[in-house]
Amino acid sequence: MGDEKYLGPLVVEGKLVDAERLKKESNYLRGGIAEDLNDGLTGGFNGDNFLLIRFHGMYQQDDRDIRAERAEQKLDARHAMMLRCRLPGGIMTPTQWLAIDKFAADNTIYGSIRLTNRQTFQFHGILKGNVKPAHQMLHEVGLDALATANDVNRNVLSSSNPIESELHQEAYEWAKKLSEHLLPQTRAYAEIWLDQEKVATTDVEPILGETYLPRKFKTTVVVPPHNDVDLHANDMNFIAIAENSKLIGFNLLVGGGLSIDHGNKATYARTATEFGYLPLEKILDVAAAVVTTQRDWGNRTDRKNAKTKYTLERVGPDVFKAEVERRAGITFEPTRPYALTTRGERFGWVKGIDNKWHLTLFIENGRILDYPGRLLKTGLAEIAKIHQGDFRLTANQNLIVAGVPESEKENIEQLAVLHSLMENVSHQRENSMACVAFPTCPLAMAEAERFLPEFVTRVEGILTQHGVGDEHIVLRVTGCPNGCGRALLAEIGLVGKAPGRYNLHLGGNRIGTRIPRMYRENINEEQILATLDELIGRWSQEREVDEGFGDFTIRAGVVKPVLDPTRDFWE
Ligand code: HEM
Ligand code: SF4
């Protein structure tokens, strides 16, 4: 990020990608979705609608475990939708929980609820006929799936540690306001899914524009010292700054992002750049200014170069920042001091400043389902029936039963214990995460969610063998280089390459402020474990006091740190 770099043009000229045509012709995201819904001949959405439904929170998928078999039988793939809710800050009520619990059981192929690592939930396996009822069910309980995928500002995250301070509540309120401020204004969602009346098209999109953003866009609100939202994976991040425990403003960090493309050296993971401090009352203007600058300057000729991180590098962070200042009518003050010291959860009961109790539950892979002998889904529904507070989804795919009065604590705990929701797991397991990948994700190259549990067991074995069984290493697996599992902010990151094969990245840190470097390419599980065995052995012997594994791999020269990803990410 040095000065001598060539700074590219503000706007990239050239042939627009097809996604741009599609957005433009969609009449503000309507396309032919409504007509397609009534086409019972196919289980999927066709033509442009296949991509347009993403703006309405859905991906069309098929079960990849049975894809080949169906093709052999000359059958179409069994199409079904994944539907993702909008849930700023990850907070929902017990009534909402019970509604989604029932819907998953009655109307989805897999019967599960998947908590995602962006503080929301998604259903997998909704057949076309059940899509509209899904949106209507969400609407009835005050939720929606608007703008949770595709080229818009997606679900807004906020640090989820519950009612630990008034700051958390305020951060949540800002996450909600940001989400609403940046939502698409089109009435398409209400017309198509909620049967609301069509009004003569008067749609305008003052912030997103008629062709929306060049690429997905992600926002967080962070309450230091917790970096549980993993801010560096996101385009726009507001770090709460307090004075005498009162929120007074935010530091803004722009241009984080993890997605890469195997072997494409023009792609890289990047941490976000500090722009400076802004007072509270400017947050919505500044947010709109960042989004519109990216809207106007983002590269619409190449989707692999379209995210804010690339725009920032092309025009230069200072140029981007000056444009945001101009559009928002603000001059950023220097970044105020802040410290991030943790990223994980504090499992079990924590008492808040409001004297209520909050129970953080570990949910492996965020997958809520009744397993033989472990009725997680039933257990959470039973809790929802008596719970007087709310549920908070964390950015690590876990769940907080928040706001429990003293008088109810024992009842909730009994239900949690009865349904195996409070089982003891190792710190290693608590700090491990995977994306969905097979069987539903069409982009998966290797297993992730199904691979992780057993793999963690083997890593636990290695830690124990080296006498560090109580320690943990932030470990993440992502089924392809798109990076949904945030492996490129882990201490050990596995990025899927092909079935059973991964690239191994090392050198991230515990708090998520450093990108790990590729250490071995395209290796299998046995090779990964052998490498880890050697390195964890060294760490256990040679580490300094409290030195994390990632920091050790950098200090010991196992990997070099990524300093300027535009130059050295692939070195
Ligand atoms: C080019 C980039 C990306 C593409 C095309 C992409 C696409 C997808 C698809 C198709 C799914 C659905 C998988 C399923 O549920 O079956 C998914 C899930 C998800 N993605 Fe991405 N993704 C990208 C990058 C990212 C990144 C960088 C993040 C976050 C840092 C992210 C966060 C998520 C989350 C939270 C889920 C839900 C499942 C989970 O928690 O693992 N995605 N993505
Ligand atoms: S990282 Fe790849 S495999 Fe995993 S959910 Fe995202 S797109 Fe699918």
TrEMBL record:
Domain Nitrite/sulphite reductase 4Fe-4S residues, every copy: 174-330
Domain of life: Bacteria
Keyword Transit peptide annotated: no
Note accompanying the cofactor annotation: Binds 1 siroheme per subunit.
Pathway listed: Sulfur metabolism; hydrogen sulfide biosynthesis; hydrogen sulfide from sulfite (NADPH route): step 1/1
Enzyme Commission code(s) on record: 1.8.1.2
Record keywords: 4Fe-4S, Amino-acid biosynthesis, Cysteine biosynthesis, Heme, Iron, Iron-sulfur, Metal-binding, NADP, Oxidoreductase
Keyword Oxidoreductase: yes
Pfam family, one: NIR_SIR
Binding residue positions for [4Fe-4S] cluster: 435, 441, 480, 484
An MF annotation (GO) of this entry: metal ion binding
Cofactor(s) the record lists: siroheme; [4Fe-4S] cluster
Binding site for siroheme: 484
One GO BP annotation of this record: sulfate assimilation
Enzyme class: oxidoreductase
Sequence ranges assigned to domain Nitrite/Sulfite reductase ferredoxin-like in this UniProt record: 81-141, 354-414
Record's catalysed reaction(s): hydrogen sulfide + 3 NADP(+) + 3 H2O = sulfite + 3 NADPH + 4 H(+)
Similarity annotation: Belongs to the nitrite and sulfite reductase 4Fe-4S domain family.
Complexes and interactors: Alpha(8)-beta(8). The alpha component is a flavoprotein, the beta component is a hemoprotein.
Function: Component of the sulfite reductase complex that catalyzes the 6-electron reduction of sulfite to sulfide. This is one of several activities required for the biosynthesis of L-cysteine from sulfate.
Name of the protein: Sulfite reductase [NADPH] hemoprotein beta-component
Lineage: Bacteria, Pseudomonadati, Pseudomonadota, Gammaproteobacteria, Enterobacterales
